[in-house]
Predict the structure.
Amino acid sequence: MLNLNESQFEIVTCSGHADGLKLIKVKNGSVHAFHLENASGEPAVLREVVVHRQAMGYPANTRFYAEGSNMLSQYWGTIGQIQSTVYTDRLHYRFPVRPGMFTVYNLIQFFPDGGTPELAGFTSCRRFTNEIRFNGETIEFVIDCDNLAIPPNSTLELEELFVTARGSREEQLAQFADRIAHYHPRPQYDKPLTGWCSWYCYGPAVRESDIEENCLAMKKLPGFRYVQIDDGYQRFMGDWLIPHPNFPGGVKELCGKIRKMGLEPALWAAPFIAEEKSELFQRHPDWFVRDEAGKPLSSAQCSFGGWRCAPWYMLDGSHPEACEYLCHVFRTMREEWGCTYFKLDANLWGCMPGGRRFNPGMTRTEAYRQGMDAIRRGAGPDAVILGCNAPLWPSLGTCTAMRVTNDISRRWDKFDELSRECFSRNWQNGKLWINDPDCLLLENLAIRQILPDGSVSTGNRTAVSPEEFDFHRAHILASGGALLSGDILTELREDSLRTIEKLLQMYGKTARFDDTEFLHGTIPVEEGVLHCYFNRAPLGKMFCRLPDGGTCADFWSGETIDDRLLVLPPRSARVILHEPEKGGNA
């Protein structure tokens, strides 16, 4: 339905004449490359280039999936009735949009009734933000040029577009991932990304003693390596090397204790933001993105202000001194503190539209990537860099791992929501980065909370059912990505410990889903095939026909299943190992 042979295009400038600009297109199979030539003899400032526009070739009831600009934004449903995650680019992050058009980013895949899927997406994100805009009548693929000037008698290379209508959903996504890797090879890391995270036990009220207690409990889990100290160890947002009073011994000393236990320390940081009280902001306000008056631009002026210690100010990756600061912070954490794993949160604020940057000749994508390069220089080429709340495509090639879902919590609606978000991105695991499905939760918990006056209280205990926990652990299994526990390890029951042992055995094996509702995924294993069945319905049973021949057994318990009609209660999942007869097929 997409026909780039019959294409309309448009070049939109802020200044200078578009008449002297020419869009050159080169097609090679599924790949479409674009560049601009300025033969006018005068510079032009570019707002955007619509590299392809055509009539919407699909009816309103056509299902689709599309990516957001931010890691937390995803879109699906039908062309006529769009659904989305909670945090959308347009409403939550206040990204500018074109009236009358719905905007998604980087990738869209259509699923026509009774037909073959069709995928269209940008395979590179070296300098520019890529948009896909559509309504019931029109679809267009747009490169936001971020008011970049193109000099006279020069050529500007744009981003590449990939379009295919051959193969299944999974086959198209695999081809797409291979082409992305051509421009953005992922940082190599071949060890299991496993361990424990403090956030879903203690939140920002975490204390030094909490970390030490859970480190001791990790002896029961020999497959766990990393102790991820999340938000709360720092004095202020932005002052990552200055500890909070809850860490009286200092974070450097705590990291040393963790290493002596045979574990590896990991640290959370939000490198592209700072709060007003921070030493970083007070000493170097010139390192931040500015408003039109030349003052530091508050995140609340251009976007969502921040979830804690807001409003934030946004560190400018185009500023050389800001980059040297980032390099210094992560080099200190690596060389002096012994950390080789860093969870980077709020990365989107390093790539936010709007504001003025130190280097006006650098797009926001380039500024962000330059900041990430500085972090990598400090952290070391072999460090684990986990992106979170990040601009998705601008992070390609910079992150070892990437969160692919919203934050988890001990609630059924979150278990359901995050599994859908995760499975939509299963194709990225091991190809673009290691997928992080967020933490594994196996226990109900009374959550520690910080009250407005700064005191700490303990809330009510959560009430997740055993069936809902079954659904969640099956989701983590099917993701094939990072495995980080979010429970208090001293409170893990024996069956929870056995679940973690089974998950560690399956690390890195990602389920394939041929249905867009993600009800049945398959994972080839040495013994046969794991079949992952998910009943998302709040009410009503789901009936699944197990494969014929051979033997079927519950993955978690090993119990043999004789009845090939599997019945799942609502809000539950089962994982079944099917071993074919010798000489047969799984």
In short: Residues 320-335 form the longest helix (16 residues). The chain has a mean pLDDT of 95. The radius of gyration is 25 Å.
